[in-house]
Amino acid sequence: MTKDDEFGDQLGDDRSHSRPPLSLRQIEVFRSIMLAGSISAAGRALHVSQPAISRVLALTEKRLGYPLFERARGGLIPTPEAKRLYAEVEEIYSQVQRVNALATSLGSEGEGQLKLISSSSFGQKVVPTALSYFCAHNRAARLDYRQVTFDQFVSFFLSGQADIGVSMSAADHPYLSSTRVGQEQVVCVIPRAHPLAHSEFITAEAITASSNWIGYPPNTPMYKALTAFFGANGPAVPPSIEVRTPVAAYFFAHRGLGPALVDRSCIAGPSEELVVRPIDPPAHIDIWVTRSLLTPLPLLARRFVAALKKSLEES
Asked: Are 22 and 60 in contact (CB under 8 A)?
């Protein structure tokens, strides 16, 4: 024996550093043999033939450069190296099982977080109703919901703070996409002591002739939705109070500050202080769903959109 051979026996074979790593299939076969105790039992567990298991094991031991099992009459006895390797393999398999459990729960229970934003009007009834459907089928989901103004929509999406948004207008931005999913009727809410409370329906002339009424500035979605009601030139008499959202208009009317045109979705329920009247000609606001084009739409966001459509159809 040469000195090189002697050092080789004592220090090991340096060529082991250049050997290719084990494949996932080899690791799976090794684990199955450790659990089953024999090649034949491992083959049955993996639904492959005994010769196939033997070939994989032989290739694995050749690649490693040391035996994993000692052959005995009663089966296979793992070597100390095999026991050490098995401890690492089991840790990996535990992690794989956690990944599989998470993947299953994402599909069945909707685990994860949904980042949802909406106009304030839709936070009164439209979004809560849709969430009642959504949460019933996605019990493990967590929700981050915020009411934002329409001019905040773009920043929320581009900063990753929103997966899906519900608003009165389509987003005008190259990185956002909007789809109309429904409509809501516009009505007039009137303080009970106001003269218009006795009217069967409200016209543009009637509300602008009022001594005080609540309206919207021209750059708001609600103002644009009322174009058919007031005409292309807008109301003949400007409102005494301007607000930016129908929810604010509703609560101002609720406090007796004057009649206001709002969408039905911002009316949570009956009120002793207000009466609700239809308007002539009728007007509607659109319900838009907006998403970012920069990232794929998450599963929870797709499920919320489905719940929203279902709730709108049933209402």
From this structure: yes
